From TrEMBL:
One of its GO terms (biological process) is uridine transmembrane transport. Gene3D superfamilies: MFS general substrate transporter like domains (1.20.1250.20). It is found in: Membrane. It comes from Neolamprologus brichardi (Fairy cichlid). This is Solute carrier family 29 member 1b. Belongs to the SLC29A/ENT transporter (TC 2.A.57) family.
Length: 377
């Protein structure tokens, strides 16, 4: 008796994070990975181009000033909402793709994010040193972003032509649809024992992947909640006790130092991955990062209304920042590398996208928490 039974759960191919608040549900419509990545890159580049043009929009004469500003605010709110959405789609697609590969392939994605932050911090310092107008600096930022995205699009187009990856499994019709297996005895005999086990597990638990990685997913979420809850809402208001009013203190000791150490921590996972994915040391270490919140709150942060200053000297702030940033990069990268390896091979893409969703969720929760933390200082 023919009993149609589809194992083609569309979830593994389309979990997307259109924003931190966007839930990931199975979709009946298949969107190719190439379209997701290329489409997101083109939309993001378009947003930056429009924003760069708006930077140069003249606001004179005065009676047009208010109306023009309102238009710019409205347009930019919409544009940045689009940017965040497609940026999340791109991130989910990339981590889903990396989930199909060995864990070492996730490290370059995490490291690239740290490098981007370092580049932005250097750009800020160069803009301050050059003494350029705010409008010119902003225009330069957005044009540079357009150039970098163009290079990313070109690289994505050329990469498949240059390298053929041996790790990505070829599509398996017997996994995608088992209808034919039930009616074709010869085809059924060709299935290996391990493959049958994978199919049976998928039939019984078609959405098992999230439960296998929930500790790692919550860990990466908690990591970024602590990080964004403190940086930069609290750290950017720290005042130097050695150089009164130095305009380079925050750009260098806060933004540049954080991004350099964060980049170093992310990159270290390329040669060292300790503790292991099943070790309790990993979530325990992430939990210990909570101590950085009161440490930064007790630094020389101004204005302040409630807590005393305990760590006056700049060296305390710099030491805390090094440990804070390095632990963020290293531990978050470990979680992102381990997540897709805790599931079956055909669930790896789903796991990678889920990990990207919880990363984005951590960023959003941290941003919301930062208001409360700053008020308590």
């Amino acid at each position: 008796m023919h009993m149609p039974m589809s194992v083609s759960v569309s979830w593994p191919r389309h979990i997307q994070t259109a924003d931190w608040s966007t839930s990931s549900f199975p979709s009946p419509v298949r969107v190719s990975q190439r379209l997701r990545v290329m489409g997101s890159l083109f939309v993001i580049m378009l947003v930056f181009i429009i924003t760069a043009v708006l930077v140069k929009v003249p606001l004179e004469p005065f009676h047009f000033f208010l109306s023009t500003m309102v238009k710019i605010v409205i347009i930019n709110c919409d544009l940045w909402a689009i940017l965040q959405a497609f940026g999340a789609v791109l991130q989910g697609s990339l981590f889903g793709m990396a989930g199909l590969l060995p864990a070492s392939y996730t490290t370059p994605i995490m490291s690239g994010q740290g490098l981007a932050g370092t580049f932005a911090a250097f750009a800020m310092i160069c803009a301050i040193a050059s003494g350029s107008e705010l409008q010119d600096a902003a225009f330069g930022y957005f044009i540079t972003a357009c150039v970098v995205i163009s290079l990313s699009i070109l690289s994505y187009i050329l990469l498949p032509k240059l390298v053929r990856c041996p790790f990505i499994p070829s599509p398996r019709p017997e996994i995608q649809n088992i209808d034919h297996c039930s009616t074709s005895p010869s085809h059924s005999r060709q299935l290996s024992a391990s493959l049958r086990n994978q199919i049976s597990q998928t039939l019984v638990h078609p959405q098992l992947a999230p439960f296998k990685i929930w500790i790692l997913a919550l860990s990466v979420c908690f990591t970024f909640t602590v990080t964004i809850g403190t940086f930069p809402a609290v750290t950017a208001d720290t005042k130097s006790t050695l150089s009164d009013g130095d305009q380079y203190f925050i750009p260098v000791s806060c933004f540049l130092l954080f991004n350099l150490c964060d980049w170093g921590g992310r990159s270290l996972t390329a040669i060292l991955m300790w503790p292991g994915k099943d070790s309790v040391i990993l979530p325990a270490s992430i939990g210990c990062r909570l101590v950085f919140i009161p440490l930064f709150m007790l630094c020389n942060v101004h204005p302040r209304a409630h807590l005393p200053v305990v760590f006056h000297h700049d060296c305390f702030f710099i030491l805390f920042m090094i440990l804070f940033a390095f632990s963020n990069g290293y531990l978050a990268s470990l979680c992102m590398c381990y997540g897709p390896k805790n599931v079956l091979p055909h669930e790896a893409e789903t796991a990678g996208a889920i990990m990207a969703f919880f990363l984005s969720l951590g960023l959003a929760l941290g941003a919301a928490l930062s208001f409360l933390i700053r008020i308590l200082v």
